[in-house]
Amino acid sequence: MGGLFKYMKVTAITCWIGALALIGTPFFAGFYSKDAIIEAVGEVHRQGWVVQYAYWSVLLGVFVTALYTFRLLFMTFHGPERFGHASHDDHGHDSHDAAAAHGHDEAHPGHEPEAHHGHGKPQESPWVVTVPLIALAIPSVVIGLLTIDPVLFGPFFHGSIFVHEPHDVVGELGHEFAGPWMFGLQAFLHAPLYLAAAGVLTAYLFYLRNPHWPAIVEGKVRWLYKLLVNKYYFDWFNENVIAPLARGIGLGLWKAGDEGLIDGVVVNGSARSIGWFSGVVRHVQSGYLYHYAFAMIIGLCALVGWLLLRS
Question: What is the value of pTM for the model shown?
Answer without folding.
Answer: 0.64
